[in-house]
From TrEMBL:
The keyword Lipid metabolism applies. This is 3-hydroxyacyl-[acyl-carrier-protein] dehydratase FabZ. The gene is fabZ. Belongs to the thioester dehydratase family. FabZ subfamily. It holds the Pfam family FabA.
Amino acid sequence: MTEQLLTADIALIQRIIPHRYPFLLVDKVVDIDGYQSGRGIKNVTMNEPHFQGHFPGKPIMPGVTIVEAMAQTAAIMVGTALDMADKNMLVYFMAIDKAKFRRMVVPGDVLEMNVTTTRGKPGGKVWKFAGVATVEGEMACECEFTAMMDLSAGQE
């Protein structure tokens, strides 16, 4: 028997990570396979604050926010798998490596972030991930990143 893949909707996401508007960059995470992999979904809309200045007349989602959306996807994936809802988990970037940007992401796009754990285990603090963000199957960004997951932040 295969294990059922999990999904995190916006209500669960807000119970796992502390991010809120305007910095919550993931609408849902689907196909969560334990803490091994997951796929985040971000509906890119014109009303996001970074589009006012990046760039006037030609709105393009900044690359750093694409990478942040992948990191949030990873945190939600791990948080869902490890039942971290309502436990005040905090996540901190430690490194971003091999980041490449291949396609502009603009309002109206649906950004999909496929994230895979390359190092990390339940109870561990330092995790490594590989991420690929796509729009309609076309690669927008790929990178590797390392994060410290403070799983005990709210348990003191």
